[in-house]
Design a protein that fits this description.
This protein is α/β, with parallel strands linked by helices and 151 residues long. It is 50% helix and 16% strand. It has helices spanning 12-24, 43-56, 72-78, 92-102, 111-114, 119-131, 138-150; strands at 3-7, 29-33, 63-68, 86-88, 106-110.
Length: 151
């Protein structure tokens, strides 16, 4: 599994912590930007870079983690691409559910919420999201196919 990691200026500091966290665990991670704190950057460009990497990756189970102020903007931008299932997640239980039920391949984190919490909160979210398999139930596969028909 390879993780593509991106953020705008609002999520930059949390993204840097996440990159260090994933690297320490030897999880292949590519930072798609922003590479420096730039208050004038725009989240859609980083969501697009990550989404295109995920849908273009031939490796098994490529995923992305995107961070912005509220997580919503990144999710909206990433979900514009067929095959992307981006979810805004704020706790480990939601991380489990979005993987199990929706086969989420893009995790969007709200920096404004998570930076007020202990680091363990976002670490638990990421660990749960990374290690929860898709249930592969017929109804879940059908729903994902319906989403791709719309995109």
């Amino acid at each position: 599994m390879k993780i593509y990691l991106g953020s705008d200026h609002n999520g930059f500091h949390l993204k840097e912590k996440i990159f260090a966290y994933l690297s320490k665990r030897d999880i292949p991670t590519e930072d798609v930007g922003d590479k420096e704190l730039n208050p004038d950057d725009d989240f859609p460009q980083f969501a697009q870079l990550a989404a295109l990497k995920v849908i273009g990756e031939e490796d098994k189970d490529p995923r992305a983690i995107l961070v912005c102020g509220g997580g919503q903007g990144m999710a909206i931008a990433a979900n514009r691409f067929r095959g992307i299932r981006a979810s805004v997640i704020w706790d480990a239980e939601e991380a489990r559910l979005t993987r199990n039920d929706n086969d989420s391949n893009v995790l969007c984190l709200p920096a404004r919420v998570l930076e007020r919490e202990d680091d363990q909160v976002w670490q638990d979210i990421i660990d749960t999201w990374l290690h929860t398999p898709f249930a592969d139930a017929t109804r879940y596969k059908r729903r994902n196919a319906e989403i791709d028909e719309i995109a």
